[in-house]
Amino acid sequence: MIAKELTKDFVSALLPERNNESNKGTYGKVLNIAGSIYYQGAAYLSSVAPLKIGAGLVTLATTKQAANNLSGSCPWVTFLPLETYNEECISHNAFQQIKDYIDSFSVISIGPGLSTLSEVSEFVKTVVNYLVEINKKSVIDADALNIIAAANIDKLPSNSVITPHPAELSRLIKVPVEQIQKERVYYAAYSAKKFGCNVVLKGNKTVICDTEGQIFINTTGNSALAKAGSGDVLTGIISGLAAQGLSVKDAALLGVYIHGLCGETAAKQLTQYCVLATDQIDFIPEVIKQLQ
């Protein structure tokens, strides 16, 4: 398989345009379905990153407790508190609450910090099946991928991107991590064909495969990104770019490159040891300046 390396010139051309004659609706709306009582930070990171990258509005659909806890720390985000099971996770009954909202958003992101408890698993399966039915622009990550793997769902929206790390992909395609790591390009392409969607296989030299089988290799990033929360930031960056009108493929290509460059740029000031996921978000402006 022939793979194309992502370069600065290539991704710079993908940056969404900004227009003075605009408003928040011009730059799209993200509905981020994320969080549980156990992983509220993931919901925060995946909700703030889309705004930092330029999306017009982000609504976090999460448990009532997480919404209450996070509302003071991220006043830029709006909230959709969902029915909660046992004060832990989103209830399976919450789909009816959220269904009518999905159509009004530019892109749906789902997965960060949801947990895999049975209640939320039923909810995620229902949401994913609905996203397939309407072929909604979507970014699917983290616990949503683990739930999809356990449920043996083998069809995802063609207008979506999944962003697994090797262990998550291993669960999805039932192939050992060691084998995936030996043949990363092959298994990214295999997964894109199997699920009928775009695939971002995270890791050193992240591999992106689109629905046509085209392969791209990222050239940015370092060990500063090997930190809890990094994947949640990437999900947010991709969803924020997709909300601004990019295809999910182009949003994934640009998003992966920007995220890697955030790690590199932050590490110059903070060292590769000390970069937190929140620092990755903070360095997005500096990275965009480099690409303009």
Please render the helix and strand layout as text.
Blueprint: E1 3-5, H1 8-12, E2 29-33, H2 40-52, E3 57-63, H3 64-70, E4 78-82, E5 84-85, E6 89-90, H4 95-102, E7 107-110, H5 118-134, E8 138-140, H6 142-151, E9 160-162, H7 166-173, H8 177-182, H9 184-195, E10 198-201, E11 207-209, E12 215-217, H10 230-243, H11 248-270, H12 277-282, H13 284-291
Parallel strand pairs: 1-12, 2-3, 2-7, 3-4, 7-8, 8-9, 9-10
Antiparallel strand pairs: 5-6, 10-11, 11-12
Cα radius of gyration in angstroms: 17 Å
List low-confidence stretches: none
In the CATH scheme, the class would be: Alpha Beta
Number of helices: 13
Strand coverage percent: 15-25%
CATH topology: UDP-N-acetylmuramoyl-L-alanine:D-glutamate ligase
Spatial order of the strands in the main sheet? 1-12-11-10-9-8-7-2-3-4
Q: Which bin fits the share of residues in helices?
A: 40-55%
Number of strands: 12
CATH architecture: 3-Layer(aba) Sandwich
The tally of structural domains comes to 1
Largest sheet: 10 strands, mixed
